[in-house]
Design a protein that fits this description.
The chain is of the alpha/beta class. The protein has a single domain, classed as Rossmann fold (3-Layer(aba) Sandwich). It has ten helices and eight strands. It has an eight-stranded mixed sheet, sandwiched between helices. It is globular, with a radius of gyration of 18 Å. The relative contact order is 0.18. Bound molecules: adenosine-5'-diphosphate (ADP) and magnesium ion. The site of adenosine-5'-diphosphate has 16 residues, from helix 1, strand 7 and helix 9.
């Protein structure tokens, strides 16, 4: 089984940015093959990685619900479509979940697809999953067990409080996580000691390991505006700090 690393947290905290940086880190360290999964309906992980999306898993499910060619066994068809949905990028693969299903019965589509997905995932050493805030896709992916889950917060009291709530949600959803981490992202240079202490308190209370306080990086906005993929980020304080955090995480 691959090492499964997933990001959670409320919108805008930096999950996609950190997911992309983790993919970059794994490739740099030769820790491959890597499958990156964009499990946010408002997919943008591909932009950070500099890739175009062709078909999403959501679209395949929609197709399956309508019809599949008679000539082909259903499972073989699903597997074929799934392989077409995989974006083969430089040093890693990317899969985009896309929009969640609409009303109607997707049970058959779901069971075929999850079988094919499980088989697919076993061929990678690392899985990086960029989740939406609600983590709905985790159950759709049948990903109810993972080695690492990183809950990302902004550098605020409310943000850190939300991390505690998300940790509780994960327990309520029966998601089995070996290592539950907290990351406080976009920290100003003069981050108040009180906020650090509060983060430690919440981490302890919810059995989270406090991984890192990552800096606010003014260059990130520029990279985003110019659509510069993470692989080309040079001298980024965020990238540097994120790399040492990932190192600690993988050596834990
Ligand atoms: N450490 C950082 N410094 C500066 N900007 C950041 C940092 N982390 C994330 N951002 C910016 O914050 C916004 C939200 O980040 P994103 O990764 O899309 O969050 P999420 O996936 O959690 O919604 C983006 O515009 C991103 O460029
Ligand atoms: Mg995102």
């Amino acid at each position: 089984m691959p090492v499964r690393i997933s990001f959670a947290g409320k919108g805008g905290t930096g999950k996609s940015t950190l997911s992309a940086l983790l993919v970059n880190y794994l490739i740099d360290k030769g820790l491959n093959p890597v499958l990156a999964v964009d499990a946010d309906p408002n997919a943008n992980l591909n932009e950070l990685l500099g890739e175009e999306v062709s078909i999403t898993l959501g679209e395949i499910k929609e197709e399956l619900r309508k019809s599949v060619p008679d000539s082909m066994a259903r499972y073989d068809y699903v597997e074929m479509r799934l392989h077409q949905a995989i974006i083969e990028a430089k040093g890693y693969d990317l899969l985009v979940m896309g929009q969640p299903e609409g009303p109607g019965c997707y049970c058959a589509a779901h069971s075929f697809l999850s079988q094919a997905l499980e088989k697919l995932m076993r061929s990678y050493s690392y899985l990086v999953i960029d989740n939406e805030a609600g983590m709905e896709h985790l159950s759709r992916l049948n990903l109810l067990e993972m080695e690492h889950l990183i809950i990302v917060s902004d550098a605020s009291y409310r943000g850190i409080m939300t991390v505690g709530r998300i940790a509780d949600l994960i327990k309520a959803l029966n998601i089995k996580v070996d290592n539950l981490w907290m990351v406080v992202n976009r920290c100003p240079q003069n981050l108040p000691e009180e906020l650090k202490r509060y983060a430690k308190e919440i981490a302890e209370k919810h059995s989270l390991k406090l991984l890192s306080f990552l800096p606010e990086d003014p260059k990130v906005l520029e990279y985003e505006a110019k659509k510069i993929p993470v692989f080309e980020w040079k001298d980024s304080p965020l990238k540097k700090e994120a790399y040492s955090a990932f190192e600690r995480l993988l050596n834990s």
